[in-house]
């Protein structure tokens, strides 16, 4: 089976229902979502199956949901068949609340890093923020897409932050505080996110 088609050799790619330039805002957005998905896959290879079974289950579901987000952004038909719903957003919110109870209380901003898997999750988090910004750009340009994708990306970046902290906590690796940070989390980071 050949995986190359040569149809993109002139700088365009196929959407669902049209073709677009490869640097179009819509293509940039779902391409960045694919980048997030790849880093999540990398993080999964760095997690012990027993110690992080709950996170691995979360991340596998998230990988599928990111494919749904990308597919929804690529669907430009007059009657699109969107897959994303509010339910995954609600699940992320619940998981964030649960995860933020586990690591030590947070008072200051932290630097990305710690264990290898946590560092990878922080990379995925920052790329998720970029994908979210790109959906904002897409929305401002008047392009149609399901707004739940933008909400999902916002919650996902929060989830990845919480998950990275849990990974470090379970690994016995302390979060590295930003040395010039004031005490910005009044409740220990339990209900307020970083960013």
Task: Tell me what you see in this structure.
The protein is mainly alpha-helical and 195 residues long. It has a single domain, classed as Up-down Bundle (Hypothetical Protein Ta1238, Chain: A), CATH 1.20.1200. Helix content is 54%, strand content 5%. It has 5 helices and 4 strands. The strands form 2 sheets. Strands 1-2 form a two-stranded antiparallel ribbon. A two-stranded antiparallel sheet has the order 3-4. Strand 1 and strand 2 form a beta hairpin. Helix 4 packs antiparallel against helix 5. The longest helix is centred in the middle third of the chain and has 25 residues. The chain starts with 11 loop residues before the first strand and ends in an 18-residue tail after the last strand. The C terminus is likely disordered.
Query: Helix amount, in percent?
Result: 40-55%
Instruction: Return residue spans where pLDDT drops below 50 for at least 5 consecutive residues.
Output: 191-195
CATH class: Mainly Alpha
Q: Enumerate the strands of the largest sheet in spatial order, edge to edge or round the barrel.
A: 1-2
Quaternary structure annotation: single chain
CATH architecture: Up-down Bundle
SSE series: EEHHHEHHE
Overall number of strands? 4
Q: So how many helices?
A: 5
Question: Which superfamily, in CATH terms, is the homologous superfamily?
Answer: Cobalamin adenosyltransferase-like
Strand content: 5-15%
Mean pLDDT across every amino acid position = 92
């Amino acid at each position: 089976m050949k995986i190359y088609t040569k149809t993109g050799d002139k700088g365009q790619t196929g959407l669902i229902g049209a073709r677009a330039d490869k640097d179009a805002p819509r293509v940039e957005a779902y391409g960045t979502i694919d980048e997030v998905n790849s880093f999540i896959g990398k993080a999964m290879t760095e997690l012990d199956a027993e110690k992080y079974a709950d996170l691995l289950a979360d991340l596998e579901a998230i990988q599928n949901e990111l494919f749904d987000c990308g597919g929804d952004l690529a669907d430009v038909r007059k009657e699109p068949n969107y897959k994303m719903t509010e339910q995954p957003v609600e699940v992320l919110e619940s998981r964030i609340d649960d995860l933020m109870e586990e690591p030590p209380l947070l008072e200051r901003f932290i630097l990305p890093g710690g264990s290898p898997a946590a560092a990878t999750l922080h990379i995925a988090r920052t790329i998720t923020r970029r994908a979210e910004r790109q959906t904002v750009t897409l929305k401002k340009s008047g392009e149609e897409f399901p707004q739940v994708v933008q909400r999902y990306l916002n919650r996902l970046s929060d989830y990845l932050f919480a998950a990275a902290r849990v990974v470090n906590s379970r690994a016995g690796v302390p979060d590295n505080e930003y040395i010039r940070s004031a005490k910005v989390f009044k409740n220990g980071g339990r209900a307020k996110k970083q960013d």
